Amino acid sequence: MNAVSEVHMLPSVKGVVSAALRREWLSHRLNRFLYAHIALVLVIGALPLLTPGDGFSRGAAWWLLHGVLYAVSLSALLLGLSSAHAEAEEHVWIMGQPGGIGPWLTGKAAGLVMLTGGSTALIGGPALAMGGASRELAVAMSGAVGVAVVCALAGFALGFWVRDGVRGLIAAVAVWFAMLFGVDLLLLAVAGSPWVQAHPDAWIAVLMANPLDAFRITVLFSVERAAFSGLGAGALTNWWAANAVGWLGGLCLAWVAIGGVIAWLGLRRRTDDL
Amino acid sequence: MKRGGAFGAFFLSSLIAGLAMASPVDARLGDALRARLAEAGEGATVVVEAGDYAGPLAISKAVRLVGRPGATLWGDEKTHVVTITAADVEISGFTIRGSGRDLGKDQAAIHTTGARTFIHGNRITDSLHGIYVRRANDCTIVNNIILGDGAVAEAVADPLSGGLKPGESELCDVESPQDRRGNGIHLWNSAGHVITGNTIMGTRDGIYFSFTDGTTVRDNTITKVRYGLHYMYSDENTFEGNLFSENAAGSALMYSKGIVLRGNRFVANRSHRAYGILFQSVDDTRVEENLIEGNTLGFYLENSNNVTVRGNRVVGNYIGLRVSDSTAGGRFHENVFFGNIHPVETSGANQANAWTVDGRGNYWEGALTLDLNRDGIADLPHREPDLFGGWRRSFPAVGLLSASPGEKLLRLIHSRIALPSLPGVTDTRPLITTRKTP
């Protein structure tokens, strides 16, 4: 066998990506976390039905905001973690394949993103079915999908750095607490600092970078339409208020990319350790 | 060629607009009406049939001027359309349009210096001020519709769709298109009026009070103006059952005392630094049973003393209530605070005001409602902390942490642990239900 024929025997990148994606789909069909996530999403999606009368469509976005912040985000994080841990026993074998870890990881991450995003999109289903379609609901639904995908990729990346199941679970919950409460508390703690008060844009940039805060602010701007007192805080705040939806979309894409890179680094580190 | 076409189209459209705005009236009808008014005796009734009558009109004797449906008085766009200088004049049923636009001369559709003027059932458009009352007491202004230039073309800007212009809605500090309009009803240096059932939209301010006392304002609807109520140096007035909604800055009451605000709705005043109600140096006043909903800042009290705030629903505002340290002797009880992003903003412990009166406090969303004896009053005090306090002014960006999980967590902790250094209010007898109890 000559070198040319050996090259032809290597699987194409597209083939590896596609195979990994299909395998991810198959894996999740057997994974209880996906079903738990879908059930949770549907329950939260049904919560707006508790809002009577004229406030239904406006209330729907509020329900979804809180459901995503306090439940769906953690569920998606655990979904990503379980995805990363799913092939732990076959890891060595998979890493030894000639296709390389990049295409395999890309396919697996793409499968996770599609499954998480698709299942989370069901969150708006009950409200839509009850005639609650509105711009606010669309913003909340899209944001929910984006945030869930980011959280799933965060869990995914974490799973390749922390391979032990129990430690991974503890780390995932810690990351979730940091995203949900930690950033807010940190920002509140430093809000009185003279340097921070002299450089509000730096403080706001940290808030903008947290997907959960970005989602919350976007829904508040979009649903409440109230000019926050913070709108007098400078050009960056004003820009954010005027472009909140676009920023949230871009931020989610950026975090997905960053999550992918961190996952790849974690996976490669494992390979190097072997 | 294109430029010439565009210029032609512009010229033609301007000509059409000018023709549309111009008075379609035959001057002879106006002359005939002036002649009838001159001939009428004191107390006479002058009925005006449908038609377009060229103004301006001056009424200097006590007559009843009654317009039949379709009767329109057209101003000359240089002065008031109708000038009333006599007492006991009645004017009703007209469409009145086309006053002058000189703010310095206070030009208006109806300008009265006559006591006991009765103005009812008129429709006023295309004018600077709608109704201007100057040094005339005991006027009655009922069921008029007053539409300013902004009533059709300009709604209050939405922060999202219109872009944000911080400062635009500050108290009279930046000129905007609204500042070049007149007010719906302008009252100056007078007393004893009754103003009921009017609809005012798209003017600069809805009702403007200055040095005007002893007036009742009831069941009016004021929307899409700058200040629904712009009010200074006016005492002992009563406002009941009015709707102030979608105004750029809400309602501002300053330097006055003895006011009663009862059963009004201050709703959706949402622009940057808008208020549902602003009190600046307002004393000895009762604010009862009002709905304050969906405003950027629901109710702001600054340097106001002995104000009773009872039975109001403060709902769904960004900040429900802001009470400055300079406000003292306030009695806040039986109010409902629900769905506000910040229920109360204060910069200190606010011990100069009472949050429980006669054993009854307020309903606070999310308060611990332990009520073992089932008397409708919680057995534990409720502390409503304000985590941001004065930072909202020194570091306004902190407002972006509103309703965040971190802020909610800290509020939950601080509501149970009274830290003396933390601004906030303490309600010793919070209510456990939003329902009224006898």
TrEMBL record, chain A:
The chain crosses the membrane at residues 33-50, 62-81, 101-125, 137-162, 168-190, 244-267. It comes from the Bacteria. Keywords: Membrane, Transmembrane, Transmembrane helix. This is Uncharacterized protein.
From TrEMBL, chain B:
InterPro entries: Carb-bd_sugar_hydrolysis-dom, NosD_dom, Para_beta_helix_rpt-2, PbH1, Pectin_lyas_fold, Pectin_lyase_fold/virulence, SCF-Subunits/Alg-Epimerases. Keywords: Repeat, Signal, Ubl conjugation pathway. Pathway: Protein modification; protein ubiquitination. Residues 40-210, 238-380 form the Carbohydrate-binding/sugar hydrolysis domain. Residues 1-22 form the signal peptide. It comes from the Bacteria. SUPFAM superfamilies: Pectin lyase-like (SSF51126). Pfam families: NosD. This is Carbohydrate-binding protein.
